[in-house]
């Protein structure tokens, strides 16, 4: 579809294909990064698990059909590791962005190793140690969400603290899911501010604590979606909680950052960096 | 480090850099897919948020230091959207895999649009509708994990069912986190098998149900890690539960698959495909 951005001339319809012998997550991730630079919308088609020659031929037909229909050349981001499949895809009328061939060929030359051209190597395989770590981290993070459990806090890799709705839960789950990091999280609540101290159960783990803050305006907006018109969501209350929480983080000398206007991915990677945490799994 | 794979000649140490002006997730994702084809281990260095010329120069120094130390050319996967930064990185002694330039330049020609070369476009920005959908989906999936709540099941996009430890929780969270899909999940328990019916609360939502199964051997292994030597984890009990669950899924005529030896990503994408669910967010 054409973009609604008025600074850009109306564009013809363009279809983008993400074609993979696996999940297609790699093709989509890179494709989105590249396409985002052009500020127009594309008609997206995902074709995962294209792992037989028959499915490749079907993909070629769909690309050629889109070419007929749109009157513009479809753009094809593909990760087909088998040379035979990648070659068959080339027969389509699309503009080919072969992510594997583009980088594997020069690397083969540089490394002097023949590539395996084997499917399904890019994600954790179930049963591997990395996979087990990841599942364990997800279970840990779920069990230690919102201060639910104080058990085994010593095995946490990081403990996120912050006022309610500052982004602790999605960040903890993302750290576990993507990186195999055991991330507990604890809310900072008015009782903590009155005492002027972090929850005492966290005292032995100070070096693992990372604080998330948020702008009071954004916090009020988020809380109002959950409990409209409540004291909890009132801007003056949000201002008080955020100011007290930040004061506490400074006093205790812990690492912290604001989650306002950051994506979950950005917050997670910043925490990895600040806390010098090695990822446990891809 | 050299690979322990005996079929491969001992390789010299190679350092791989993932350099980005953002989180580096795109560079890492594609880099891993490509490197996985070579079956050797690399010494990995991540440099996210390289968003000033000073940081680019620091990255160049680190690449050149690795070259000195290893005696082999480092491999550099980079996503620096600013032409000035990408250009400055080229002065290093590394082997450059510039993921942006490689694909943006030909696309510029094809689309006839000038790329923005703007940082931070590849992930959801907080405040956007997609971002809100994603957070809402995570909250929904958490609230509806393991049959915890029957409320608002009508707004679920998918309801996963399966025996305890068949992979429902990580899959639900991944669907929410990555795709903004509201995924509830319900355990199938011995009481359900005795009645020979799905939990009655799910009856109105049959078209949203997707089943996960698992091999009894794998299930026993997973359950034994959690409750060693228990009846719950015994192989004959796992065989009974899996057989009853699969029988029920067939009788009810719902879509289902085995999660054995599949990654969370693979299971999630297969569910999207089978249930014809459009992703709600990147």
Automatic annotation (TrEMBL), chains A, B:
<protein>
    <recommendedName>
        <fullName>Putative phosphoenolpyruvate synthase regulatory protein</fullName>
        <ecNumber>2.7.11.33</ecNumber>
        <ecNumber>2.7.4.28</ecNumber>
    </recommendedName>
</protein>
<feature type="binding site">
    <location>
        <begin position="162"/>
        <end position="169"/>
    </location>
    <ligand>
        <name>ADP</name>
    </ligand>
</feature>
<dbReference type="GO" id="GO:0016740">
    <property type="term" value="F:transferase activity"/>
</dbReference>
<keyword id="KW-0547">Nucleotide-binding</keyword>
<keyword id="KW-0723">Serine/threonine-protein kinase</keyword>
<keyword id="KW-0418">Kinase</keyword>
<dbReference type="InterPro" id="IPR005177">
    <property type="entry name" value="Kinase-pyrophosphorylase"/>
</dbReference>
<comment type="similarity">
    <text>Belongs to the pyruvate, phosphate/water dikinase regulatory protein family. PSRP subfamily.</text>
</comment>
<dbReference type="Pfam" id="PF03618">
    <property type="entry name" value="Kinase-PPPase"/>
</dbReference>
<keyword id="KW-0808">Transferase</keyword>
<comment type="function">
    <text>Bifunctional serine/threonine kinase and phosphorylase involved in the regulation of the phosphoenolpyruvate synthase (PEPS) by catalyzing its phosphorylation/dephosphorylation.</text>
</comment>
<keyword id="KW-0670">Pyruvate</keyword>
<dbReference type="InterPro" id="IPR026530">
    <property type="entry name" value="PSRP"/>
</dbReference>
